[in-house]
Input
Amino acid sequence: MKNKKNETKTRKKKIKVSLQVKRIFLLLFSLGIMGLSASAFILYGPWSWVRERLITTAMTTMSHQYLAQIFFDKATIDEVLANNRIIEIDENTNPDLIKIDNSNSGNKYSSKYEKEILEKDKGNDLFKVIRISELTYKGYLVAIYKPEKVKIGVTSKLGTTGQSVRVIAKNNNARVTINASGFYDPNWNSNGAIPHGTVIKDGKVIWDYEDAKVGGGFVGFNEDNKLILVRTDKYSAISKYHLRDAIEFGPFLIVNGKASFVEGDGGWGIAPRTAIGQRADGIVLFLVIDGRGYGGSVGCGMVELTKIMQRYGAVNAANMDGGSSSGLIIDDEIINHPTAGGDNGLRNLPTAWIVTE
Output
């Protein structure tokens, strides 16, 4: 009799537990359905912002385009990309607008940004690092006071294997280094060996590869140490524009003080970013913005990138490769928060902008 009572109690407990488990699963299932419904509403509902940011951000990466393709068909993706684009200024750089001046006379500044740029760190006449911090993005702006020290650095195994910006920096004894052009990746292995377009170093073409363009054109310094943004062929780049160190990439953000027109987010989404620019006084600007949540930064688009460059006085500025390629090295130290899976988060790349002593 006692055994039957125990069996009955045990059975009731099992039934009770079973009902609780079923309720938990039902609750989780319901929450899952609600989550899917909410996600579907966000992605396909009346607000286009999330949809456009997801598509433009995913489609400008090398390995995460599937994040857009699993949710949207090709027609939708093409439509979004068509409505988010950069219309670049149809001009080439006018070198006469740049008057290289290192005198920095006087202590009156037109804005706090001018003060940040022009007040040098004690004992350092070569460069100054400025922290960039906004609500959704953070990064670093480096003012280079000697434009003649800015050159292009390349992987020592150009065409075979790329190297991280840290390695390129070490190989060139560089004080400051950022990533430069993008690269062709035929096997999606992030080898980083083949630069987009043409690479000019010391006045000579050292690499020339015709591939898909990403806007822009030649970005580089001429013999007078002025940053030139120009759409031309490799022969004219050297013979007519006298480029000593240059790569091909883009888009151009600012040309002759005029900003490109950005429709939507520019079609590049929100991600880590790298840009290069030059002020009217010749000071070169290296800009690296963290993203993808690293360092508390979501990243930025072309609009924000352009505004930062304008804020600090860039007369000419161009976008460089971003995303997992963005990296800033100063005196062999990784300053930003790289997002690739390689050496300390750095990706192998073909080219970098370097500043030597």
About this structure: The helical segments are 2-44, 49-59, 66-69, 74-83, 112-118, 165-171, 234-239, 302-311.
